[in-house]
From TrEMBL:
Start and end residues of each Aminotransferase class I/classII large domain: 42-372
GO-annotated biological processes: biotin biosynthetic process
Name of the molecule in the record: 8-amino-7-oxononanoate synthase
SUPFAM superfamilies: PLP-dependent transferases
Record field: catalytic activity: 6-carboxyhexanoyl-[ACP] + L-alanine + H(+) = (8S)-8-amino-7-oxononanoate + holo-[ACP] + CO2
Organism of origin: Syntrophus aciditrophicus (strain SB)
EC number: 2.3.1.47
One Pfam family from the record: Aminotran_1_2
Pathway: Cofactor biosynthesis; biotin biosynthesis
Keywords: Acyltransferase, Biotin biosynthesis, Pyridoxal phosphate, Transferase
């Protein structure tokens, strides 16, 4: 154990010195757009609860009733005794709502991406991926036998250069519709033009878009995506994830996807709650409108104050640079009652650390004002202390 322990301690020490150490504070509770920490209440700009459903009293009561009615566990994998009719019904409802042939539920988005990307492709496939895709997609691809070819973030020009050189019988393009850290949106029409010309299979991770963007929150990628990845744990206010897929792909995953075959499936209560959520989504136009407006206000205010900010929707990235600086800025903001993520390597490229701002429908103009004022104060204090 001596050498093992020493190695771990050394790696953790180096992680701290590089400003990459992770030690999240314990959350005592949440209330609306705020979190309760040991040091007091903070305004939360690190949440993915974009529509506020995760904090909704209405959804909370619906979920509680469902778990009282159906129990707490499926107690089996989907392929043994966990293939409940209610789960299949919920999957059909999600496929209809979002405009796909079939859907398949998973306990997490990480598991969904792992199952999809590690299972579908063989050595005759070339998988082209945006270099800023999620870590779960990267891990899924690593377990695939496909040839992996990255292209520059959001560069369809670079993607086309890659596609022209493809020699395999199958080509696949993997991207996101709303990127989780950069906050920029996929050029759907441009990608659709490439798809029409090159005939590739298109997979789009819509985790940060479904529920929020598009009519009734159906996302933005339907015109181009053969397969879409969605999550319950962000705008939909629950937990777990789902794939939106052709029926043939669902059949194939049932028979060959290890992460599905060898995992306990989500319980019936989850499926019942998922069906309830679709009704809430359909009635959330006002929340979506408010989220668009408050996100635009935050971006415009940050830009007007001279910050380098990017993001096309409800995810905004304020450029900081050095990892240690981003961590220090985030920590100082917390002392002023603002909770925001300092996204650092390997979540973002080394030396390109950001403050990743998650806007929600729970935020108001006064929250934006508080954030802007606090950030200006903290940046001034930091520059004065390090000049």
């Amino acid at each position: 154990m001596g050498g093992f322990t020493k190695r771990l301690k050394t790696q953790l020490k180096l992680h701290r010195q590089a400003g990459l150490y992770r030690q999240p504070p314990e959350i005592l509770g949440r209330e609306g757009a705020s979190l309760h920490l040991a040091e007091g209440r903070v305004l939360n700009f690190a949440s993915n609860d974009y529509l506020g459903l995760g904090a909704s009293e209405v959804l909370r009561k619906q979920v509680a009733r469902n778990f009282c009615k159906y129990g707490s566990s499926s107690s089996s994998s989907r392929l043994v005794s966990g293939h409940y009719a209610l789960i299949a019904e919920a999957e059909r409802a999600y496929a209809r709502y979002f405009g796909y042939e079939e859907a398949l539920f998973f306990p997490s988005g990480y598991q969904a991406n792992l199952a999809l990307l590690s299972t579908l492709f063989d050595s005759g496939t070339t998988l082209f991926f945006d270099k800023h895709i999620h870590a779960s997609s990267v891990k899924g691809m690593a377990l695939s036998s496909a040839e992996l070819v990255g292209y520059n973030h959001s560069s369809l020009t670079h993607l086309e250069k890659r596609l022209k050189k493809a020699e395999t019988r199958e080509t696949v393009v993997l991207t996101e519709s709303l990127f989780s850290m950069d906050g920029d949106l996929l050029n759907v029409s441009g990608l659709a033009d490439l798809k029409e010309h090159y005939g590739f299979l298109c997979i789009v991770d819509e985790a940060h878009a479904l529920g929020v963007l598009g009519e009734r929150g159906i996302g933005v990628a339907l015109p181009v995506a053969d397969i879409a990845v969605g999550t319950f744990g962000k705008a939909l206010g629950l937990f777990g994830a789902f794939l939106l897929i052709p029926a043939l792909v669902k059949e194939y995953l049932f028979n060959f996807a290890s992460p599905l075959i060898y995992s306990t499936t989500l319980p019936e209560a989850h499926a019942a709650s998922a069906i309830d959520i679709l009704t809430l989504l359909g009635d959330s136009d006002e929340s979506r409108r408010h989220l668009r407006e408050i996100s635009s206000l935050m971006k415009n205010r940050l830009y007007a104050e001279g910050f380098s900010v990017q993001g096309d929707a409800h995810i905004l990235a304020v450029e900081i640079g050095r990892e240690q600086k981003a961590l220090e800025i985030s920590n100082r903001l917390r002392k002023k009652g603002i909770f925001v993520l300092s996204a650092r390597y390997p979540t973002v490229p080394l030396g390109r650390a950001i403050l990743r701002i998650g806007m929600t429908a729970l935020h108001g103009e006064e929250d934006v004002n508080h954030f802007i004022l606090s950030l200006k104060e903290v940046m001034k204090e930091y520059e004065n202390g390090n000049s």
